[in-house]
Amino acid sequence: MTLAAILAPAGPGLAPAEARFFAAADPWGFILFDRNLEDAAQIRALTGSLRDAVGRDAPVLIDQEGGRVQRLRPPLARDWPPPLAEAAAGPRALWLRYRIIAHELAALGIDVNCAPCADLAFPATHPFLRNRCAGGDAATVGRLARGVAEGLLAGGVLPVVKHLPGHGRATADSHHALPRVATPRAELAATDFAAFRALADLPLAMTAHVVFDALDPGAPATLSAAAVAAIRGPEIGFGGLLMSDDLGMGALGGPLAARVEAALAAGCDLVLHCSGVAEENARVAGAAGALAPAAAARAARALALRRPPAAVDIPALEAELEALRRGCGDG
User: From 66, 156, 172, 320, which residue has the greatest number of CB atoms within 10 Å?
Assistant: First the structure.
């Protein structure tokens, strides 16, 4: 059975006990962080070892947005500005940027990128998120995020749109505290939800650890059946594989196993746990269980979109991107 979880390894290589655990638990996928990344040969070996452990071409995820949220840095990858700094150059510029990022990731055996961030940027958006957004207008953000997603897909890397149903109105950092949004539902539907509605056909998405009073005042979206119903329903209409944000974040309280159970009961297809701590991974595995049949079908549809990229002239793409940046006054 494939576990309804994405887990992280502890370090730059798999110890024998960790490899045995992953072989037995069989998580749907893996996610990498700074502690897992040393050099290109080591990363390729690690991604290969993770897949060998589960005996299949399991997805390997990373957060490579650019700006602060960029796990790979020079010389492993180019140093990218935050998405908001590049948004004025338009969807084609973002397509080029993320097509190049996909090229960097695929060379290391990484085939899923946790981008685009389609949250709207408001004046009060918490600084941890604001420049990771692409703007404050839903229609514009939808077009720009589409460029991100299509650039990644063209490079053989699956995009993960985040954070549904919207994190931009939150004034707290959900890594450390639980944000609450009091905006009426009709306003959310016309703004925050609308950006994600334009991306509802994408294969993968991630929830927000944010309480929306208009949806469910008693639970953050990740743990709320009402919020997940809004994500799946006509207001957003997302039909792909839905994963939680990291269950280890400070926004969530209670025992880890209870968080896992609540996220899956709310309607998340998968839970994401990022610490790499062996004991925590074991608790997640014990609570998650196998992918539900509907989730397994959505997972299969998502993974079917992984295709070898067409040959591309990366220097030519870089030159075009630079010309677009100059044209909008950036650089």
Answer: 66
SS3 237: coil
Residues with Cβ within 8 Å of residue 191, at least 6 apart in sequence: 120, 138, 166
CATH of the domain at 64: 3.20.20.300
With 0.90 as the threshold, say if the pTM is over it. Answer: yes
Distances (CA, A) of 267 to 37, 117, 229, 258: 32, 21, 8, 14
Cross-strand bridge partners of residue 117: 162
Active site residue 175: yes
**Selected catalytic residue, list 245, 246, 269, 273:** 245
Q: Strand pairing of 204-207 and 241-246?
A: parallel
The boundaries of the domain holding residue 203 are: 3-327
Of 31-40, 154-163, 172-181, 266-275, which range is least confident?
Answer: 172-181
User: How far, in Å, CA of 299 to CA of 2, rounded?
Assistant: 11
Known catalytic membership, residue 111: no
Beta bridge partner(s), residue 206: 162, 243
Q: Point out the catalytic residue in the list 52, 137, 173, 175.
A: 175
Local confidence band at 331 (pLDDT 50, 70, 90 cut-offs): very low
Answer for the pair 219, 230: CB distance below 8 angstroms, yes or no.
Answer: no
* Tokens, residue 50: 């993770």
